[in-house]
Amino acid sequence: MGVRVICNPNYAAHVPPHEVDNGAVVPPWEVPGRFDAVRAALAAHGGFAFEDAPALSVDVLTGLHDAGYVAHLRDTSAALAGGGGWVMPSVFPFAPGEPRGEAARRGAYCFDTFTAITAGTWAAALGGAAATYRAAELVAAGETRVAYALTRPPGHHAERGRCGGYSFLNNAALAADLLLDLGPVAVLDIDVHHGNGTQHLFYDSPDVLTVSVHGDPAGLFPYFSGFADETGTGRGLGFNLNLPLPPGTGVDGYRPAVAAALERVGRHRPAAVVVAFGADAHEADPIGGMRLPTAYFAELGAAVRALGVPAVVTQEGGYDLATVGACAAAFLAALGDEVSRGAAVPP
Ligand SMILES: [Zn+2]
């Protein structure tokens, strides 16, 4: 059985107008063409079965995301319907208390100026959650060993009650939550940016191990988390591992970090693994700053496959339209390869 690819049917609904980077208005990196590029590359590669995600009830999100935040996303998109407008924060919370009024909610429910809400944002974000939920359902039911949620916008930066980093709903966390029915779960985040939202959502949990290999946040988004001394809290102490790498890291630097990540994942003895997959550590990525060649993504896929556990993969970053698809295809083909699989797989 090849890799099941569950597509977000609403991926093109969210069209951000721009980003605000250090006060400058710049074109958005996170665009619908990213999805098209990945889908085309997977189709050209062969061995992938595509299906659209069925609709998802918003109730599924309530355990993961704050109800006020979810309502803000839904209602803001609804209020923008029919126009080309957007909502982006100008003022962030500097005093305690619940936000009172629309301008306060913009800042309270978002942590950066890269992540505009548009008329189609809610549909696109919910569609991504639907694709991820379906992928996790298929893996949990044993219907496939590897399922991939092909979606945009990404999810791994979204916290319980805040969007940011182009992310609105945390797809990787949603998958991990569902897969807990099988036993302990590990989330491996190999996007070049720290998976701060996923870490945040499971920081006190010993059941979901979160491991992230990423660019050092001292110089790379999201700046405020992703450091090596963040190891979890309470019962979750010891169940978060960050492996930050310096700018310009190539294969020689990634190999030992990924080996350490996988060693920690293996010790967790997960019943399933969620991979937050980004191609933005590729050498051609315009914002990642790393030096990985396309071929290394196949090595990554094979390394995850060697864990011998079922996997749900969520599409996160990757902003070079010419290579993001090839990276995803290389990773997923190697991860899904049944013939050369080494370790035992649960029945
Ligand atoms: Zn990223």
From TrEMBL:
Residues 30-335 form the Histone deacetylase domain. InterPro entries: HDACs (IPR000286), His_deacetylse_dom (IPR023801), His_deacetylse_dom_sf (IPR037138), Ureohydrolase_dom_sf (IPR023696). Keywords: Hydrolase, Metal-binding, Zinc. Its cofactor is Zn(2+). GO terms for biological process: epigenetic regulation of gene expression. Belongs to the histone deacetylase family. This is Acetylpolyamine aminohydrolase. It comes from Urbifossiella limnaea. The gene is aphA.
